[in-house]
Specification:
Blueprint (H helix, E strand, L loop, with lengths): L1 E2 L2 E2 L7 H21 L11 E2 L13 E2 L2 E2 L2 E2 L1 E4 L2 E4 L5 H22 L7 H17 L2 H4 L4 H18 L8 H8 L4 H15 L6 H4 L7
Parallel strand pairs: 3-6
Antiparallel strand pairs: 1-2, 4-5, 7-8
């Protein structure tokens, strides 16, 4: 369940119990909204049924007697969660945003740009790479094919920045500029994120499973 930046999550083997838990929480939230005079935009609220299989008859969720439609995916804090958590839609979104920003920066990082290589690399690591890695502790365990798509984006830019010839291997280019592979970088961020969870003073957060690379 998503309403702006608010998420309500529930899980159970029996969908009826899951729905009941969500509806009960909605009622409590509704009372809180009334108390603090906060208007909830029901039209922007979505529900996603996360499951491996296909559920033909999904349970009903209501807010203010209005049925919330079930969506194929929802965007929460910049992360697109599809109903089977394949992350394909999110990866596609990353690719689009990355290419759009790259076009704007092209005059600076193009092969014929007069800017020094170290500054081009700085632009990449501070502006472009964060577009790819945002939220990676969440989606980093996606299929290898999805990671490969992102690595292609990065490799193309790195080769452009370094004015690499066709005969130069991506691995050798990375060693030259001391840039870890995208896969290793995502792994490092994810490990650090989950290792820090135990230091967060929140019981629910501390119950999150440990990250296994």
């Amino acid at each position: 369940m998503y309403a702006d930046d608010t998420a309500i999550l529930a899980r159970n083997k029996n969908p009826k119990y899951t729905t009941a838990a969500i509806n009960q929480h909605i009622e409590k939230l509704d009372d809180w909204f009334v108390k603090w005079k906060i208007a909830l935009n029901v039209s922007k609220t979505e529900a996603v049924y996360f499951a491996k299989g296909e559920k033909k008859h999904k349970p009903v969720i209501k807010i203010k007697n209005k049925i919330i439609p079930w969506s194929q995916q929802a965007k929460y804090l910049g992360i697109i969660l599809d109903k089977k958590l394949t992350w394909q839609s999110h990866i596609s979104s990353i690719k689009t945003k990355f290419r759009n920003v790259t076009r704007k920066l092209y005059p600076l990082i193009a092969r014929d740009s007069d800017m020094k290589r170290k500054y081009k690399i700085l632009i990449y690591t501070t502006i472009l790479r964060p577009i790819i890695t945002y939220g990676c502790p969440i989606w980093g365990a996606t299929a290898k094919s999805n990671i490969n798509k992102l690595e292609v984006l990065e490799n193309n830019i790195i080769r452009q920045i370094c004015k690499a010839g066709w005969y130069m291997r991506n691995e050798d280019i990375r060693k030259t500029i001391k840039l870890p592979s995208l896969k290793d970088f995502i792994k490092k961020i994810s490990v650090n994120f989950y290792n820090n969870i135990e230091n967060i003073d929140n019981e629910a957060i501390q119950q999150i499973d440990k990250y296994t690379p």
